[in-house]
Write a structure and sequence with these properties.
Layout (H helix, E strand, L loop, with lengths): L2 H7 L15 H19 L11 E6 L5 H13 L2 E6 L11 H11 L2 E5 L3 H10 L4 E3 L7 H13 L8 E5 L4 H13 L2 E5 L8 H14 L4 E5 L2 H5 L4 E4 L11 H7 L7 H4 L7 E4 L11 H4 L6 H19 L6 H9 L2
Helix pairs in contact: 1-14, 2-6, 2-13, 2-14, 3-13, 4-5, 6-7, 6-13, 7-8
Bound molecules: phosphoric acid mono(formamide)ester and norvaline.
Norvaline binds next to helix 7.
């Protein structure tokens, strides 16, 4: 193993994952390729538990089905004890300071997974925690979801570099994270949202700068025209128009997003073999119609299922397990 491959194999050890731009392009690719290797190894019957004797705290300040299940089962499969604190079982629910949670969990666990509202809160937790902190969704980002989303795309034979991805809908945490992930993976990312619900121009600039710095060749386009965004796309994504925390705005949002529903007519503008993806939960009849989400182009269940593999890779790499040699090789070869 060369010096370069051994330093890449452990480059994420002890780090946080608060957003995808915390990673270099090589490191994001390494997470994905590690997930590919671990998934194949598990399917082949290799059930090693490299994190035996460790523990992972999973704190959920918003509802969760997929994220909780995949982190809890993923930690257990790696040999780590998953300590789930949902609803009123975390110190946050009793108003305790973030500092106290971080400084106390340092004594009990080897990583902390947090789903919360403000990105500033997870950043503060990371400041106090000596162990890796992993973002399981904030109002701003959902990095683990996008890492998982890119697995079934590869499994369907599509290369990530140069992939044309279209996101139609709210300029929310999912849109933000597709921009970051697409920038790092060298994609042609198009985001269509109505005026007033678009991603922040500062983030677009940050992602373009990251693409330049990393030399990925990514292109980023933000517009208010779903047809323009979807034309010739290889993958079409959408998400709820009313994210957790926005429920009081539901009716106003449904009115504002008319014309942004993913229908068969909109999908007809995409590449003929385009995939449809949605992080879920979905609202059939709002952001997407059943003919699309339950139709032949939809890969939503593969997408959800790959949360397990993406997050096992994140936990193992951040908690110090070196990446598999084959994953490192593919990253270096694919530069
Ligand atoms: N996609 C996703 O994060 O699902 P949950 O909210 O159910 O965790
Ligand atoms: N944008 C959605 C994603 C859910 C996984 C939300 O934040 O509620």
């Amino acid at each position: 193993m060369t010096q370069e491959s051994s330093s890449l194999a452990t480059s994420l050890a002890g780090r946080d994952l608060l957003r995808l731009l915390d990673l270099s392009a090589d490191e994001m690719r390494l997470v994905i390729e590690t997930a590919v290797e671990q998934k194949a190894a598990w399917a082949a019957g290799n059930h090693e538990a490299p994190l035996a004797g460790t523990a992972v705290a999973i704190i959920l300040e918003k509802p969760s089905f997929r994220t909780r299940s995949s982190f809890e089962i993923g930690a257990a499969r790696l040999g780590a004890h998953p300590l789930v604190m949902a609803d009123d079982h975390s110190a946050f629910s009793r108003g305790e300071p973030v500092k106290d949670t971080g400084c106390i969990l340092n004594h009990f666990v080897d990583a902390i997974v947090l789903r919360t509202f403000a990105q500033a809160k997870i950043e503060e937790l990371a400041k106090w925690a000596d162990v890796p902190v992993i973002n399981a969704l904030t109002d701003a980002f959902h990095p683990c979801q996008i890492l998982a989303d890119f697995l079934p795309i590869q499994e369907h034979g599509k290369a990530l570099r140069g992939l044309r991805i279209a996101y139609v809908g709210d300029g929310n945490n999912m849109a933000n994270t597709y921009l970051e992930g697409g920038a790092l993976m060298g994609m042609d990312v198009r985001v269509a949202s109505p005026a007033g619900y678009q991603v922040a121009p500062e983030l677009v600039e940050e992602c373009r700068a990251a693409a330049l710095r990393e030399g990925t060749g990514a292109r980023i386009t933000v517009c208010d025209d779903p047809v323009a965004a979807v034309t010739d796309a290889d993958v079409v994504f959408t998400d709820t128009w009313t994210s957790m925390g926005d429920e009081a705005e539901h009716d106003a949002r449904v009115a504002a997003f008319q014309g942004f529903c993913v229908t068969p007519e909109l999908m007809a503008h995409a590449a003929p073999d385009a995939l449809f993806m949605h992080c879920l939960p979905a609202h059939r009849g709002e952001e997407v119609v059943p003919a699309v989400i339950d139709g032949p182009q939809s890969v939503i269940y593969d997408e959800a299922g790959n949360r397990l593999h993406a997050q096992k890779a994140v936990m193992s790499l951040l908690m110090g397990v070196p990446a598999p040699g084959a994953a490192v090789e593919r990253v270096l070869r694919g530069r």
